[in-house]
């Protein structure tokens, strides 16, 4: 996908993931949130992102990280602190969207998460993320998954 064909929401997710990644690397320090947000808003590509979506998902993850981890950790084959920061960040972001943003179809959430992992993560990280989110969707969006 060329950089010019990315949707405003995709850009918002990319920027939010970068912020979540930085936050994880910082040890999830509450005081870092504003600095991370300010840095991302200063990026040239921020103007092309859906700002409201970015804000909703970034702070949704920041504010709800512990609960989000509780939702996806049963489907992870290792302790959460052993996940790569990219996989951890993508799982937080996608879990937030699956649990809180029901207007986004679950297949879109999973596809976006896989694409983000392919773009920013390790070689096969997307397979792991896809597997976790497929199982999580069965829990969080059972009726929607059953319809599909």
Automatic annotation (TrEMBL):
Q: What InterPro entries does the record tag this protein with?
A: NusB-like_sf, NusB_fam, NusB_RsmB_TIM44
Q: Name one GO cellular component term.
A: cytosol
Enumerate the UniProt keywords alphabetically: RNA-binding, Transcription, Transcription antitermination, Transcription regulation
Q: Which biological process, per GO, is one annotated for this protein? A: transcription antitermination
MF GO annotations: RNA binding
Is the Transcription keyword given for this protein? yes
Q: Where is the NusB/RsmB/TIM44 domain?
A: 10-137
Q: Which SUPFAM superfamilies match?
A: NusB-like
Does the keyword field hold Transcription?
yes
The family annotation for this protein states: Belongs to the NusB family.
Q: Which PANTHER family match?
A: ANTITERMINATION NUSB DOMAIN-CONTAINING PROTEIN, N UTILIZATION SUBSTANCE PROTEIN B-RELATED
Among HAMAP family, the record links this protein to: NusB
Q: Which NCBIfam families match?
A: nusB
Role this protein plays = Involved in transcription antitermination. Required for transcription of ribosomal RNA (rRNA) genes. Binds specifically to the boxA antiterminator sequence of the ribosomal RNA (rrn) operons.
Q: What is this protein called?
A: Transcription antitermination protein NusB
In the UniProt record, what gene is named as encoding this protein? nusB
């Amino acid at each position: 996908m060329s950089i010019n064909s990315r949707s405003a929401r995709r850009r918002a997710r990319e920027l939010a993931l970068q912020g979540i990644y930085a936050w994880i690397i910082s040890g999830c320090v509450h005081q870092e949130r504003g600095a991370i947000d300010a840095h991302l808003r200063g990026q040239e590509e921020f103007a092309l992102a859906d700002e409201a979506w970015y804000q909703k998902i970034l702070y949704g993850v920041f504010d709800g990280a512990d609960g989000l981890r509780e939702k996806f950790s049963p489907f992870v084959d290792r302790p959460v602190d052993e996940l790569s920061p990219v996989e951890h960040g993508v799982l937080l972001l996608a879990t937030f969207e699956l649990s809180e943003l029901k207007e986004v179809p679950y297949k879109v959430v999973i596809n976006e998460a896989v694409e983000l992992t392919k773009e920013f993560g390790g070689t096969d990280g997307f397979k792991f993320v896809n597997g976790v989110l497929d199982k999580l969707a069965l829990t969080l969006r059972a009726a929607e998954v059953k319809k599909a």
